[in-house]
Design brief:
Largest sheet of chain B: 6 strands, antiparallel
Number of strands of chain A: 12
Largest sheet of chain A: 8 strands, mixed
Number of domains of chain B: 2
Radius of gyration of chain B: 20 Å
Shape of chain A: globular
Strand content of chain A: 15-25%
Number of helices of chain B: 6
Structural class of chain B: alpha/beta
CATH architecture of the largest domain in chain B: 3-Layer(aba) Sandwich
Radius of gyration of chain A: 22 Å
CATH class of the largest domain in chain B: Alpha Beta
Number of domains of chain A: 2
CATH superfamily of the largest domain in chain B: Nucleotide-binding domain of ferredoxin-NADP reductase (FNR) module
Largest interface: A-B, 67 and 58 residues
Number of strands of chain B: 14
Structural class of chain A: alpha+beta
Strand content of chain B: 25-35%
Distance between the termini of chain B: 62 Å
Chains: A alpha+beta, B alpha/beta, C alpha/beta
Order of helices and strands of chain B: EEHEEEHEEHEHEEHEEEEH
Distance between the termini of chain A: 47 Å
Strand order of the largest sheet of chain B: 4-3-6-1-2-5
Number of helices of chain A: 11
Oligomer: heterotrimer
Helix content of chain A: 25-40%
Helix content of chain B: 10-25%
Chain lengths: 347, 302, 250
């Protein structure tokens, strides 16, 4: 990989250059929670100063910019007895500034599930390829367990990746597009001093992780503990509200619905991100529900995260961001659920 | 100012310009583009089920459309919704398709109102198929319960059209009551074919019923099965195929030679929406056709 | 007007109001961009908000408001007898709505407080289905016009309509709305049927449950969450009882 350093004012100049021609999404502070902690969301920004790169985490992942919560899959025009189908894909470029490594790993996982092997999604690919991704290193967020999942650093899946060295950024260039974006800016070849400083920062970050879990045995454990009382315990608390899947950077399940305009002249087929915790997720024609209980549905979510995805892609779907744990009003968080399962296995 | 990033238009990519073919899974394509199809005939089967004969309208698309017995389609009623439907016709008919549909919800409710000439959309085919090739030279048991005869018709037609490839063929069909029997006008034709035995059983006979009475497993009591040369396809509700497969297993048929079709509510058919997952298996990609040993190993399959 | 070769029924609609604010009816008349199309698809034979026509026979009766007087009971029974499809429109019609609050008080005392020395004849508030059989309930305070339009389309083509079964939280998350519990507020979002697009939390107001209970609402867990966040029993009970959609829990 190519590396450069970029002085912070020059990075600002780069973002302003992007802003001049392209929509820019960045972490924006939107408020304060009841404990006095700042709340950040990835939102469109109009100036560099709206971006707060020093954020700890965001309440929601950035997936909606790649996998919108609601997306029009096609439109229909009706005339007489007939109809025509119209499909449009996104072609406008966009930049996302300031994704953390876990969220870049989330994109890499979504790439595998949605853009490769079988039935690659033109909707996802269009958004992914039209999005310029700038990542940034950060000190561990509270409760995050990305290090246990190997998603605390990113080596691909981005155009540029920044590490804050104080006055300047250490910049990893992940694509030709990233390289071209730097052209004309005083980006310097890295020196020995830069490398030394970079490694020191990486070490500091690595030492900061407090939350760790063992995920190695999970695929097998989930199979063995299929009837575990752990599911009863946590499933009984589940509100079946789907919030965990909505904030998750890799949950991609969806449902499709259609509607017709009141004058019956046009219609649309819409995809809405859904959650396996919602009661009708596994209802089939005629009304039979294959997962009528909360605990079955919650178990299924862990099954997909740590076993199903593993079987298909040799890695868990979870990136350890703990957004689901933070958003869950009932306090269901993956670290405790997994530890409970493992404790159950040992008794 | 010059644009920093070039817009990427996926519709200009070469793979996207290839003719739409859902059998070429790895190619990038308009995955939500439907084949426009016309309902040519509507055949009333029972109070609840109708058979829709549909024809893909574009000549080239119709010719190119191929499927294998056991695969399914996504049937689109623009504005109402899209549902997974097993194909109920002979694979040799290509883009002339038969779809047997029970009135159950919004889309099927609307479809039951549609008349010939109405235009619907089709995507597919999707999923796995019954291993008709592997079954060659063997005896074949084709067993259906209730609506299960709809997906079983494709393998029935395949066996009939390639009759010399298979040895003895049994078709067993059971429903709750005589008025629920599907395709009753076809049984006589199937029975007349050399060495095809067809038996129909109902649980609750009416006064006119002359055939056997009971559960479908009863039909297996009289049949001679050579377990080493027999394959079975079993279509029906889980409770039905569970008992039938257990009975066949008792008779010595290996579970890897029994095939069932699982029903789930797919929203995409392409391994993306996750609605049809059984444990960690995608019914739309790894199924709907599974051998029974695999089903036994799937959590929450039955 | 044909759609997919299916000729829709030409249905005669009538709209009636009982005890309530008529907001749901106004909502129907409000959405101007689709009002003409809406009125083009159905024959409105009685709808005070948009027409002065009164000509008798109708197929579908949309009933807005709760039942709180003897004459209302009689009028409703008559409407039921004449309508092929009776639809309860809005939270008052579906659950009794805000009017139901009076059921918790002494009826005479409530009457005196409101009407002073000129008390009116009054009954405990009831939802429409507590008086006559109802074919369809469209909850909401007010109802969502878009949802009503969809339901009307489904009635025209005689196919069943599926209400969303998920709670309000799902739509809050999809709009990047900061959770109101995070801001220290009480919100019925986790247990209330969604489909409204969650406008109240987006505007900073916790959900009051106007659409009634979500399928599989985990009320016990919700109560303990609210208690943990220092919301008192009385506040929780009042919130649950507000629209009457959680009657058995308030």
């Amino acid at each position: 990989m190519l590396f450069r350093t970029l002085a912070k004012p020059d990075f600002k100049a780069l973002v302003e250059r992007i802003l001049a021609s392209t929509e820019v999404i960045g972490p924006k502070r939107v408020g304060t929670d009841r404990h006095g902690r700042p709340i950040h969301h990835y939102l469109p920004v109009e100036s560099f100063d709206e971006i707060d790169l020093d954020y700890e985490t965001t309440e929601f992942s950035a997936k909606t910019y790649f996998l919108p919560y609601k997306e029009n899959l096609c439109s229909y025009r009706f005339q007489d007895d007939d109809w025509r189908q119209e499909i449009r894909y996104r072609i406008q470029p966009r930049a996302i500034i300031g994704l953390h490594a876990c969220d870049i790993h989330a994109l890499i996982k979504l790439d595998k599930a949605l853009a490769r092997d079988f039935f690659p999604s033109p909707y996802y690919i269009s958004r992914r390829k039209n999005t310029f991704v700038v990542g940034i290193d950060h000190d561990p967020c509270e409760g995050g367990f990305c290090r246990s999942l190997g998603t605390d650093t990113a080596t691909h899946g981005f155009d540029l990746f920044l590490t804050d060295l104080g006055e300047r950024y250490f910049v990893a260039i992940g694509s030709d597009r990233g390289f071209r974006a730097l052209s004309g800016l005083p980006a310097a070849e890295i020196t020995e001093q830069d490398t030394e400083d970079y490694l020191r920062v990486r070490k500091r970050i690595a030492a900061g992780f407090k939350t760790e879990i063992n995920v190695q045995n999970l695929p097998n454990l989930l199979d063995i503990e299929f009837e575990s009382p752990v599911w009863e315990k946590w499933g009984g608390k589940c509100l079946s509200c789907g919030s965990c899947a909505m904030v998750c950077p890799t949950c991609y399940c969806y449902g499709v619905s259609e509607r017709v305009s009141m004058d019956f002249a046009s219609g649309a087929k819409t995809k809405q991100l859904y959650s396996c915790n919602l009661i009708d997720f596994a209802v089939v024609a005629g009304g039979h529900n294959f997962r009528p209980n909360r605990q079955t549905r919650l178990k299924y979510r862990y099954y997909h995260q740590h076993r199903g995805f593993m079987e298909a892609y040799d890695e868990p779907k979870c990136v350890g961001c703990n957004r689901c744990g933070r958003t869950c009003l009932a306090g269901i968080n993956p670290v405790e659920v997994i530890r409970d399962l493992q404790a159950e296995d040992e008794t | 100012m010059k644009q920093l990033f070039y817009p990427f238009d996926i519709s200009l990519e070469s793979e996207m310009k290839e003719p739409l073919d859902f059998n070429r899974r790895s190619r990038t394509k308009d995955v939500d583009r439907v084949f426009r199809a016309e309902i040519t005939n509507v055949i009333r089967l029972t109070e609840m089920e109708k058979l829709f004969q549909v024809r893909i309208m574009d000549d080239a698309e119709r010719q190119r459309f191929t499927f294998l017995p056991g695969q399914f389609l996504m049937l689109e009623l623009p504005g109402y919704g899209e549902i997974p439907i097993s194909i109920s016709s002979a694979p040799t008919n290509k883009g002339f398709l038969e779809l047997c549909i029970r009135r159950a919800g919004t889309v099927t409710g609307a479809l039951h109102k549609a008349r010939r000439g109405a235009r619907v959309g089709l995507r597919g085919p999707f999923g796995t198929h019954f291993p008709m090739e592997k079954m060659k030279g063997n005896n074949v048991l084709l067993i259906a319960g209730g609506l299960g005869l709809a997906p079983l018709r494709a393998p029935i037609f395949h066996v009939i059209q390639n009759r010399s490839d298979y040895r003895n063929v049994h078709i067993f069909y059971g429903t709750g009551s005589p008025e629920q029997l599907l395709f009753d006008y076809q049984y006589d034709e199937w029975r007349r074919i050399d060495d095809i035995e067809m038996e129909v059983i109902v649980e609750r006979p009416d006064p006119n019923w002359k055939g056997p009475v009971g559960l479908i497993t009863k039909l297996l009591d009289h049949v001679e099965i050579n377990p080493r040369e027999t394959y079975a396809i079993v279509c029906g509700p889980p409770i039905m195929f569970k008992f039938v497969c257990a009975r066949l297993s008792d008779l010595g048929v290996p579970m890897q030679r029994m095939f069932v079709s699982l029903e789930r509510r797919m929203h995409c058919g392409m391994g993306k929406c996750c609605r049809c997952n059984v444990g960690s298996t995608f019914t739309c990609m790894d199924g709907p056709v599974f051998d029974y040993w695999s089903v036994m190993n799937l959590k929450e399959a039955i | 007007m044909k759609y997919l070769g299916i000729e829709p029924k030409r249905l005669r609609f009538a709209v009636f109001e009982f005890t309530g604010c008529e907001g749901c009816e106004l909502q129907l008349a409000n959405k101007e961009e689709t009002l003409l199309a809406f009125l083009g698809a159905v024959d409105v034979v009685e709808f005070r908000e948009v027409s002065s026509a009164r000509n008798g026979a109708y197929d579908v009766a949309l009933v807005d408001g709760a039942i709180s007087r003897t004459d209302e009971v009689e009028r409703l029974r008559e409407i039921r007898a004449r309508a092929k499809v009776l639809v309860a429109l809005g939270s008052c019609a579906c659950f009794g709505g805000v009017n139901r609050m009076k059921n918790a008080c002494d009826l005479d005392q409530a009457n005196r407080e409101v009407y002073g020395d000129h008390p009116k004849e009054t009954l405990p508030t009831r939802a429409i289905h507590e008086v006559v059989p109802v074919d369809l309930k469209i909850p909401g305070c007010p109802v969502s016009k878009a949802e009503v339009e969809r339901i009307v389309q489904h009635l025209l083509f005689e196919v069943p309509y599926q209400f969303p079964v998920y709670p309000v939280c799902l739509e809050c998350k999809q709009h990047f709305t900061v959770c109101l519990f995070d801001k220290g507020q009480l919100c019925l979002g986790p247990i209330t049927r969604g489909g409204c697009d969650a406008p109240c939390p987006a505007g900073g107001l916790g959900c009051w449950g106007c659409r009634g209970k979500a399928a599989d609402a985990n009320i016990d867990e919700f109560r303990s969450i609210a208690r943990e966040r220092a919301h008192g029993e009385r506040e929780i009970a009042e919130r649950l009882g507000f629209f009457g959609g959680f009657e058995e829990h308030s």
